[in-house]
Amino acid sequence: MKLFREVVAVAAKDVRIEARSRYALGAVLPFAATVLIAFGLSIGPGRTLLQETAPGLLWLAVLFASILSFRRSYEAEGEDGALEGLLLAPVDKAAVFLGKAAAVAGQLLVLEVVVVLLVSALFGLSLGSEPAVLAGAFVLGTIGLAGVGSLFGVLTESARAREAVFPLLVLPLATPVLVAAVRATALATGSPGGGGGSWLGLLLAFDVVFLSTGTLVYGYLLED
To answer: What is the pLDDT of residue 175?
Structure first.
C-alpha cells in the first residue's frame, strides 16, 4: 500500500509538470500528426494500401511521441537537480520508476485517442471490428513502451549526447513491443486472420519483464 501511494505521488508530480508546460499538447501531438500525414502522403492515395499500413504508421507515431515524452520528462528533472532530490527522498526507488512510467503512459494514452481518430479519418481505419482487442493492444503496448522509456531515460540522463543515445537504447528493446502491438491492432481493425488474443498475451509478457526489470534495477541506475 505504501508503494502504491508513492507511485501515485510521483505520477501526480509529473502530470502537474506536464499540465503546466503543455509539452505533449504543444509539441508531441503536432509532431505525431505530422508523421502520420507525411507517411500517408508518401504511400499514395490508394485506400486499400492506406488501410493496410495504418496500424504500423499509427504505432510508429506513438513510438516517436513516447521518445519525445520521456526525453522531456527527464530533462525537466535534470534542469533543477530534481533527480538528486528523488535520490535523497525517503521513497522506494521502484516507486519513482513506476510513477514516471505511469505518468508518461497516461499522457500517451490520451494522445493515442486523438491519433487513432486521426488515422481513422485519414486512412479509413475501422475501429469497430474487435474493440476489446484494440483497447488491449493500446493499453499493453503503451505500458511496454513506458517501461522501456522510463528505464533508459534515467540511464542516459548523464550522457553528453543523450538525445542520440536514448533512441539507440530504446528502439531495439521496443521493437518486439511494436511488432506485437501492430499485429494486434491490425487484427482488431479488420485484417484477415485471428489470434489477436495471442498477441495481447505476448504484450503482457513483455510488460511483466520490462516492469519487473525496471523495478529491480532502477535504484542502482538512479544512484549512478
So the answer is: 92
pLDDT along the chain (224 residues), means of 10: 84 82 72 80 72 84 85 69 68 85 90 86 75 90 91 68 74 91 87 72 94 87 71
User: Length of the chain, please?
Assistant: 224
pLDDT of residue 193: 58
Nearest to 120 by CA among 200, 38, 203, 185: 185
Give, in order, the Cα–Cα distances in Å from 203 to each of 29, 91, 142: 24, 29, 10
36 grid coordinates: 502520420
**Across 49-191, where does the E strand assignment appear?**
none
Q: What angle do CA 126, 139, 3 make, to 5 degrees?
A: 170
Q: What pLDDT was estimated at residue 125? A: 74
For the chain, give every domain's residue range.
2-223
CA–CA separation, 184 vs 178, rounded Å? 10
* Burial class for 143, CB neighbours closer than 10 Å (0-12, 13-18, 19+): buried
Cα–Cα distances in Å, from 40 out to 114, 140, 222?
17, 26, 40
Report residue 109 CA to chain centroid gap.
Answer: 8
With contact defined as beta carbons under 8 Å apart, do 111 and 28 qualify?
Answer: yes
